[in-house]
């Protein structure tokens, strides 16, 4: 149904079986009560997906609540706890994950950021943590 270039496999078998991976131009919303692991699940999904990216492809993670340092600390914890086949040095050197932390962001700023990045990269997936904090 979808071209292979339109999907990004997450390497989470159940998710990929039901959704064919992350599909281009699709919106996925993960909603749950506070403190149940939504951000951790998303970071886990990102880390599992990174090995499927080609040279000029990237994943963007925009955090509207936590700083990039806090996100990196969570990533370090995940890398220490699970075998993703990468370590923090590989992750940083690959330049395939862009973590952006800014509060008080708005739709226009985010759109401009994405358009600027698309000049140099193929954005395979964009994650916005706490979408409800994005100002219109």
Q: What's this, in brief?
A:
By secondary structure, this protein is an alpha/beta fold.
Task: Please give a structural write-up.
It is a single chain. With 136 residues, the protein is of the alpha/beta class. The strands form two sheets. It has a three-stranded parallel beta sheet. Strands 1-2 form a two-stranded antiparallel sheet. It is globular, with a radius of gyration of 15 Å.
Defining key terms:
5 strands; about 140 residues; 3-stranded parallel β-sheet; two-stranded antiparallel ribbon; alpha/beta; single chain
Q: Tally the helices: what do you get?
A: 5
Radius of gyration: 15 Å
Low-confidence stretches: none
N-to-C SSE series?
EHEHEHHEHE
Q: Give the rounded overall mean pLDDT.
A: 89
**Strand line-up of the largest beta sheet:** 4-3-5
Largest sheet: 3 strands, parallel
Shape: globular
Give the helix proportion (percent range): 25-40%
The separation of the N and C termini measures 34 Å
Number of DSSP strand runs: 5
Strand content: 15-25%
Structural class: alpha/beta
């Amino acid at each position: 149904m979808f071209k292979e270039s339109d999907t990004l496999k997450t390497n989470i078998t159940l998710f990929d079986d039901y959704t064919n991976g992350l599909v281009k131009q699709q919106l996925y919303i993960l909603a749950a009560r506070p403190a149940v692991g939504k951000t951790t699940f998303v970071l886990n999904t990102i880390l599992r997906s990174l090995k499927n990216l080609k040279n000029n492809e990237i994943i963007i993670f925009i955090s509207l609540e936590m700083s990039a340092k806090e996100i990196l600390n969570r990533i370090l914890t995940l890398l220490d706890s699970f075998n993703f086949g990468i370590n923090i040095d590989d992750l940083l050197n690959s330049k395939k994950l862009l973590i952006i932390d800014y509060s008080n962001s708005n739709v226009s700023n985010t759109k401009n950021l994405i358009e600027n990045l698309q000049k140099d990269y193929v954005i395979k997936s964009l994650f916005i943590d706490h979408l409800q904090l994005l100002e219109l």
